[in-house]
Write a structure and sequence with these properties.
The complex is a heterodimer of chains A (265) and B (255). Chain A is mainly alpha-helical and 265 residues long. Helix content of chain A is 78%, strand content 0%. The chains are: A mainly alpha (265), B mainly alpha (255).
Chain lengths: 265, 255
């Protein structure tokens, strides 16, 4: 266990440094993030007051919601699955599998370090940008703490998903179609742009049964004034899906190993 | 001219023939591209389920806009996917192979590959137009025409974005990020945005010309706006050519 922890720390450190080393890339990420927030925030400001009053939300809360869900999304890179796919198609992963450490575990740890670096760099910018653009800080102290607790779990789920999708190229010709659907599922079922209460009730019920609520919507909800039970259930839901994601990654890694060993790739 | 057309027709045919042994892959990629487009469009459906209108825009306007951007991206990458390889070719030196040929570099480079998934984008456009666009038959020729202009502007801007690698060597991901920004901003309701945003979307990220003005033209046609759109297409096409040529000169001198 101790050896695994040390391996996790070492790989995370590498991931952390990897993000810090590419300053233009992180600047590009912030530019995209800022553009999305300004465009969607501008759109939210145009929503008639009466339409938002139905849900009891203010424009500022809506801007914080979308700014937060987008921020969580940006803690994981959208192209990480390609790194895994590239490693499998080039045969690089086969060499890594020979090592005593699990390839999936090393990748996951590396991405965890990358996610942490993105949070450290982008969090102050996120806070200032959304605060400035919405004109107020709607996050309470509890909301702030809740968001800090939600983010690592969301990043964990996204990173597990990225590995599984990247390695799916062992069964399918390419991972891209699966990645597109995964990404759009996060957008749509994670309620990335509009809070879940905008969805029809039947859709809300489906979303609660899937991991995507825990990835984005739960984090974004901290910007809204929702009943306390929504946050409690959201947190329980997030923890359950985070554990299931880790379990799924472990199981999937065994399948990957068997697939590679069988030589059918 | 005849020689030019024959050569590029042959390139296009070669791209199409490359799909022949991979029909299953072509179908899967296209199908999933359509599915992901549809999933994103559902978000707008949900939005307009709760919001009555945004500065007069409703779901049918978004459907028209979304179809235009899908068509622009799809057509650009189906016929000219080589544009996305510019940054990589600059970095790994494979651009040399194009420079040494006795042909114009840019067209050959643009047509050096085709993206199979982009058929899904192109096919999605008529589906969303017909299903949600609430189009009258008389509007269809205008919609197709403005969509073609949109292709020109989108492709020109993509050339500019990937040509940035002539100056920013080793930063291929940065060009990809700018490309993402172009697509994201083009898929957005731009009506009623503040002055600062309008300044950006009509200059450095011309999403305003790629989707907003074409959609507005189909909604309320006027000759001046059409002239502006045509002028923008000419301007960005000229600018893309100039920037690529300047970059190529810089690249050739560094050899």
């Amino acid at each position: 266990m101790r050896r695994k922890w040390e391996l996790f720390l070492a790989s995370s450190r590498m991931g952390f440094k990897n993000v810090l080393a590419d300053k233009i890339l992180i600047a590009g990420s912030f530019l995209i993030y800022a553009m999305i927030v300004i465009l969607y925030g501008g759109l939210i400001k145009l929503i008639p007051d009466a339409d938002l009053a139905v849900y009891g939300f203010s424009h500022a809360q809506m801007i914080w919601y979308i700014g937060t869900t987008e921020f969580i999304l940006f803690t994981s890179s959208s192209w990480s699955f390609k790194e895994v796919q590239g490693d499998f198609t080039s045969g690089e992963a086969h060499l890594r599998i020979l090592r005593p450490a699990s390839y999936a575990f090393v990748r996951f740890s590396f991405w965890s370090g990358e996610s942490l670096a993105r949070v450290v760099i982008l969090f102050p910018l996120y806070f200032i940008l959304i605060g400035w653009f919405s004109g107020e800080f709607v996050l309470s102290w509890i909301g702030f703490l809740g968001l800090l607790l939600s983010m690592p779990l969301a990043a964990l789920m996204m990173n597990c998903g990225a590995y599984i999708i990247g390695a799916s190229c062992l069964w399918f010709v390419q991972s891209e179609p699966a990645a597109w659907i995964w990404q759009k599922s996060i957008f749509l079922l994670g309620a990335m742009l509009w809070p879940l209460v905008f969805y029809p009730v039947w859709a809300q019920n489906i979303v609660w049964m899937l991991p995507f609520h825990g990835i984005l919507a739960h984090g974004g909800n901290w910007a809204l004034d929702l009943p306390m039970q929504t946050y409690v259930f959201g947190f329980i839901n997030q923890i359950i899906w985070a554990v299931l994601s880790l379990w799924g990654l472990r199981r999937f890694d065994r399948l990957v190993l068997r697939r590679v060993q069988s030589g059918e790739t | 001219m005849k020689d030019f057309l024959t050569y590029h027709w042959a390139l296009m045919r070669a791209n199409m023939l490359s799909y022949a042994p991979e029909k299953k892959r072509l179908f899967i990629m296209s199908f999933f591209m359509m599915v992901q487009n549809a999933m994103f469009f559902v978000l707008w459906g949900i939005f307009f389920g709760s919001v009555s209108e945004v500065k007069g825009w409703q779901l049918e306007d978004v459907a028209r806009m979304y179809g235009i951007v899908a068509f622009s991206v799809g057509a650009s990458l189906f016929f000219f996917n080589g544009v996305r390889s510019i940054a990589y070719r600059i970095n790994d030196g494979t651009l040399d192979g194009f420079i040494t040929k006795p042909r114009a570099v840019l067209p050959a480079l643009l047509m050096s590959s085709s993206l199979p998934a982009s058929i899904g984008d192109m096919a999605f456009a008529p589906i969303v137009w017909i299903t949600f666009g609430n189009l009258a038959w008389g509007e269809v020729p205008l919609l197709l025409f403005v969509s073609l202009i949109s292709v020109v502007i989108f492709l020109s801007m993509t050339i500019i974005i990937f040509s940035a690698a002539f100056w920013l060597k080793g930063q291929t991901r940065f060009s990809e990020q700018l490309f993402e920004m172009l697509i994201i901003s083009s898929s957005m309701i731009l009506r009623g945005q503040p002055f600062g945003v309008r300044l950006v979307i009509f200059t450095i990220l011309p999403a305003g010309f790629i989707t907003y003005l074409p959609t507005q033209l189909v909604r309320d046609y006027d000759g001046v706006t059409m002239a502006v759109l045509l002028a923008a297409a000419l301007f960005y096409a000229g600018l893309a050519t100039l920037i690529f040529k300047a970059g190529l000169r810089r690249y050739s001198h560094s050899l």
